[in-house]
Amino acid sequence: MSQRLVKPLISGATYRCGVHLLLGAVIALPYVLLTASFALVLASEPQELPWVAVLLLVTLLIAITPAFLAGVRSLEISAAREVLGADVPMPTGAVSSATRLRSALWFVVHLLSGGVLAVVLLIAVPTALVFILQRFGSDTQIVDTSGLGFLDGVDRWWLLGLGIGLLLAIPYGTAAAGVGLRRLAPILLGPSPEERIAALEAHARSLAERNRLARDLHDSVGHALTITTVQAAAAQQVGDTDPAFVARALAAIEEAGRTAMADLDHVLGLLRAGEANSAAAPSDMAPQRGLADLPRLVEEARAAGTKISSDLAPDLDSVPAAVSREGYRIVQEALTNAIRHAGGAPVDLRVQRTADGLRIDVTNPLPTPPTSPPRVQTASGASDLGGRGLTGMAERVRVLGGALDTGRRDEMWLVSARLPGSSAGTDRRVGGRSRDSSWPGSG
Amino acid sequence: MTIRVVLVDDEELVRTGLRAILGTAGDIEVIGEADDGAAVRDLVLRVRPDMVLMDVRMPDIDGIAATRHILSTVDQPPKVLVITTFENDGYVYEALRAGASGFLLKRARPAELLEAVRVVARGESLLFPEAVRRMVATFGSARGDGLAGAGLTEREAETLRLVATGLSNAEIAGRLFVSLETVKTHVGNVLAKLGARDRTQAVIAAYESGFITPTAS
Cα dist. A242→A229, A245, A369 in Å? Predict the structure, then answer.
């Protein structure tokens, strides 16, 4: 019981709440000054009323703007979380007008309650000190000079009690205000139900995406480790009787390990990137475009002023989801590169279904003289031209078990990707199977 | 008497590895390979193996469909031993339900691999009874009449319970104080009454009907 009585006095939460309130008081100060000066003007020069009214209106508009700003809301939320200790989630995404109104209300509550505490501190603390000190040696002088004439002759012991009571009332009052504000904060600063749902949905999407990546990783690393284990066991079993087999097994183990490591690197990179901007880049998690969206992509590029001749197979929407999604991105990256390096020359895009899958060809004439001597390269790895885009493409192709050819042919720059299009082909490689949720019956 | 085996796995490196391991056994001979479930039936009809080592997850026709296909269309079909990367895999359980006689992890040690092939070839005991029990607990749906309709005798029911624990016929005979021949008769009756191809199928039927509860150890 006594613990509960003393707790508000010694609890850090009380004093943090005091700091939070005084922050509000500091922000309130300009408003107080403005109000005071307007009152002064109105009192001294009532004949200027029309002008003062206009000025007042403009000032009011400016003064209430901060209450509605999203940045101020973020600051208030940070302060409420960090200083007040209120349970409010950090803001995400756009803010609706209803939410702005609620946070403006909080702004007002914060400033008013802060102002009250500041006034109480400025008046009550000196008064309480006077009451207390008059009992100890200073005799009547302080009380007299403080101008509190009505206190003359009042019982000194009683005044001492009042002073101590006043001093104690401040932390108790602050603690009570803290409790109230911590309850109020989620109501006024929290997200609206719609915003909450949107945030949950974004979170669910990001989890699903991470889940998919984790499953892919599980499959690909598991596959590579299986090869490693089986081959190593076989090599040991065969031993001296078949040195050629042992040598082949070692090579296969090396290759499987290398591929699995690259997959691991790639997926962990994606997961880490997702961690870093899971809030900032919801577009990454949005429903992803596929090959069926290519006409739109081409139109967008044309709208941006690029000359594109495109030849798209008619049955692209029957391509497996993983291939479709990655294929779209490959085209997107290839077009971006072509547009960046071709310097306005026409780009030729060709997407064909082949017997064993899909073939994507993007060609554009090289500007003469070439801005940088491109190096012919195949499969994975970055070249010095458009490094990151090509690395990304190579990664996508590799994950799907396809082949990528980029480089210079005569006066043309060529990007050619072959992807196994039926699910039959996606597994024909040493390491890193990539299985998607579209895979029949998986999971 | 060599056990003649066919390997089915979409990954060539797994096949070459398994082939090398099996080749060192002496009593096991790999007489064919396929890289997809689609090719298995023709291969089986051509070389007539005793057993198919079947990967479950394959691109075109997976191990479940291939197992079902062989067992339902081939006269006197070979036994199917499922090989899998992941133990905790609903596909493996489906393959067992489809008629596979057992399953084996690809990461098994060579000695375990050889022993598993021999156990399945003999058909005298259940392969990895504990793993089968876990698998039923995870993926199975135990509901049914507890084999009430099968009309098992007291002794046959007891035999089935012991089969589910992985005991061989000889061990069951010792446990029940009866002759080996009697046990063989019991097991044969159980398989006939349950319409089961082998012990694995009988045990899965026992679990799935609720005759045995997979959570009880």
Answer: 18, 5, 56
Q: Which amino acid is at B71?
A: L
pLDDT tens sequence across B116-167 = 999 999 888 888 888 888 888 888 776 777 777 778 898 999 999 999 999 9
A48 has pLDDT over 80: no
**B146, B63: one domain:** no
Paired tokens of A69: 């700003």
Does B52 score more than 80 pLDDT?
yes
Order of all β-strands in the sheet with B3-8: B28-34, B3-8, B51-55, B79-84, B102-105
Could you tell me if residue A78 is inside a domain?
yes
Clarify whether residues A237 and A96 are in a common domain.
Answer: no
Q: Are residues A253 and A355 in the same domain?
A: no
Task: List C-alpha distances in Å: A206 to A67, A275, A276, A278, A423.
Answer: 33, 9, 12, 7, 25
Q: Which residues of chain B does A427 touch, with a Cβ-Cβ cutoff of 8 Å?
A: 10-11, 58-59
Mutate to test the interface with B, among A218, A230, A433, A439 (most CBs of B within 10 A): A230
**Does residue B82 fall inside a structural domain?**
yes
Contact A370, A345 (CB under 8 A): no
Select the residue from A219, A229, A237, A246 to test the B interface by mutation, using most B Cβ atoms within 10 A.
Answer: A237
Contact B155, B186 (CB under 8 A): yes
d(CA A100, CA B191): 73
Tell me, yes or no, if the pTM score tops 0.80.
no
- Mean pLDDT over residues A295-323, rounded? 79
Q: Are residues A18 and A137 in the same domain?
A: yes
CB A333 within 8 A of CB A392: yes
Cα separation, A385 vs A414, whole angstroms = 12
What is the strand order of the sheet A347-354 is part of? A308-312, A347-354, A357-365, A412-420, A403-409, A377-378
Task: Please compute the mean of the pLDDT values over residues B195-213 and round it to a whole number.
Answer: 88
ipTM given for this complex = 0.75
Of B13, B57, B59, the CB nearest to A252: B13
Q: Please, what is the end-to-end C-alpha distance for chain A in angstroms?
A: 57
Q: Which residues of chain B neighbour A237 with C-beta distances below 8 Å?
A: 20-21, 24, 110
Per-residue DSSP letter, A379: S
Where does a domain end: A262, A285, A308?
Answer: A285
Q: How far apart are CA A334 and CA B40, in angstroms?
A: 41
